[in-house]
Design goal:
The structure is a single chain. This protein has helices at 2-9, 48-56, 95-106, 111-121, 137-147, 167-182, 194-200, 218-225, 240-253, 274-282, 296-305, and strands spanning 12-19, 25-32, 37-41, 61-68, 71-72, 80-83, 155-159, 186-190, 203-208, 211-216, 229-235, 256-261, 264-269, 286-292. α8 packs parallel to α11 (296-305). By secondary structure, the protein is an alpha/beta fold. The strands form three sheets. The protein has a six-stranded mixed β-sheet, sandwiched between helices. A four-stranded antiparallel β-sheet has the order 2-1-4-5.
Amino acid sequence: MFFRKEKKVFPLMIKELSGGPRGIIKNMTFKVRKRDIFGIVGLSGSGKTTLLKLILGLVKKRSGKVSFYGRPLWRSKKLIGFCPQGHSFFEELTVRENILLFGSLYGAKSPLEVGRRMLKELEMEEKLDEPASNLSGGQKTRLNVILSLLHEPKLIFMDEPFTGLDYYNRNLLWNFIKKLRRRGCTVILTTHLLDEAQKNCTKLLVLKEGKKFVYGNVEDIKEKVGLDYVYEVKFKSLSKRALKEIIASCKEEGIDVLNVQIDTLLFGVREEKKRAFQRLLRCYEHEIISSRKPNINDLFLKVVSA
């Protein structure tokens, strides 16, 4: 009974998944809740795209299991969509012709009706009979998303869907993704837009060198990463020797140096390390520019420096 209920709550389950070029993905285990907007973030080369392709079976896995509602993912192909990072449509065809073609490939029941609705939601309804080659870069990106959704999948994978979009159109696409969620769709996407992922994703998975560094909502990640405060400190006449001393002292005290910009350092400090941090600062002439609670960018810097 428990396992049946868990499958309903967490339709997508990844267990000890490994593979990809040079075995970059290592023992990846996580669950995705129904109607999640699940963001995968990490540095370039950390394995974000490879992880998506491993889950989808587009890259051969070495080991592990991927299940959707308790069944192998490939047995649910009609319920799944994939929006690749590169444009997948035919430039010489019109938007309408691409919709009809991709709709037939997916076996969609009413591709034109669904396509028209999504074109309207993404402010492209007037482009229906426009050749795809005439679209702007941002419009091509949005068309790419639409073509992956014509069969109205329950689970959609998007690889860097915001590439080439300005702030207005990124916001438009985020709102569209939230509409998909309200319609019962589960969305898994990769992105390097940390602030926007923090604001819009229900869960985040942070990758480091092909491994799961941490995952959960932002508050979960803050707790697991172990940052309570972030201080930006400007030092007067900071020599290379003094910088090495500060970094060494921080390492010894368990204080994180998140970033170094000439004479200005960004520190991550836990509650129990505040006094030690204050003692360290007394040894140097300095000015505290800002102190605040950590945001997702700070947590990401902690991941990189760990």
